[in-house]
Amino acid sequence: MNNQHRIVSYEGEELILVDEDDNELGYASKAHCHDGAGVLHRAFSLFLFNADGQLLLQQRSALKRLWPGYWSNSCCSHPRRDETMAVATRRRLGDELNISTAVEHVYQFCYTAEFGDAGSENELCHVYLGRVSGHVRANESEIDAIRYVSVEQLNDELARRPESFTPWFKQEWQSLQELYSEQLERYAI
Questions:
Q1: Helix, strand, or coil here: 18?
Q2: Which one of 6, 11, 80, 81 is most buried, counting C-beta atoms within 10 A?
Q3: How confident is the model at residue 12 (pLDDT cuts 50, 70, 90)?
Q4: Which of these, 177, 156, 25, 170, lies nearest to 111 by C-alpha position?
Q5: Cβ–Cβ < 8 Å for 30, 46
């Protein structure tokens, strides 16, 4: 199925509220979870590398409520009500990138980030690594651009223009390099 322009995310979708230990507490709309200071909810970030060890980056759609036009990791989103992380990551890879691939869970962490008056992220985020092969077709309702970068290129860009990247991506990338380098080296060359 070609998802290049299909709307796959909406403010009314029910997300999973959690505590800092990732215990489910209930459900709330995506809009409510991101209003004001936000409400802690479950999320995920996927870092996908090609055979050359380059990371697939996405530039978030200019239509996004939070961090529009910013560069970020390959794919990120939320599991919906009654959806497992395995189902959610598989769904979102198809929705955003029109691909299917296995991913490896590396770690989870809580973070908050405010985007002016537009709202905030307040997430318990599960971080995954994986490989991508074949042709990636970005869903243009979610993503303005995609590109591959080497670890060296990415670190250089982050040092020169950190304001171009989402806050969660910067935190996750730093943790992957500093705390999970053994897992990262299996994917990044």
A1: strand
A2: 80
A3: confident
A4: 170
A5: no
